[in-house]
Amino acid sequence: MSDRPWPVAVEAVHLGRRIKLRPLRTRADRNEYLQLRRDNSDWNRPWDSSAPVPLPTGMSFAQMVRQQDREAKAGRLLPFVLEVDGAMAGQVHLFGISRGALLSGSAGYWIAESLAGQGIMPFALAMTMDHGFGREGLHRVEVNIRPDNPRSLRVVQKLGLRDEGLRERYLHIDGKWRDHRTFALTTEDLDGESVVDRLNRLSRQSLPRHTE
Predict the structure, then answer these.
(1) CA–CA gap between residue 109 and residue 206 (Å, rounded)
(2) Average per-residue pLDDT for the chain
(3) Distance (Å) of CA 5 to CA 95, 131, 140, 149
């Protein structure tokens, strides 16, 4: 399917903070994005995807954004940058989107080290999945996580994603083919509930109960 609605933005308030997902802008975002990546290079390096075959170098930030926009308009990618209270904080993508009989996509994400562990990423991922299930009409969204990434495993646990097992040497990460566990939700799992509401419900259930 071509000519999907793009650009689009999604925003909400969570725990008193304004969470926004939007496309990158070629000029206005360049300096802030590159600085954010530099500041978090050590934090992200173990989990960043890599190329098994060397690729030509030299793609500029503007070229990257234009390429992502083309893929988004073609319906194959949702490349969101994550803002928290108006400041750039990370990214959430839905990629590998398939239409037809599959109607599925995969989610990937990262957040600045200074904001990790504050409940922002589970909420941002829930917003992204709701957009995929809703406006994009997907049936299934999966997240593939290295078994040695406890922070990311905690994100999908908070959303109640189904563990579908191990995929050996599934993705090329940080220079090597790495095993990943696959977690997923389908519209049947949600049974009419949004992923954001599912997150909030599961969060309430996990709170400690005080007894007299």
Answers:
(1) 24
(2) 94
(3) 16, 12, 20, 34
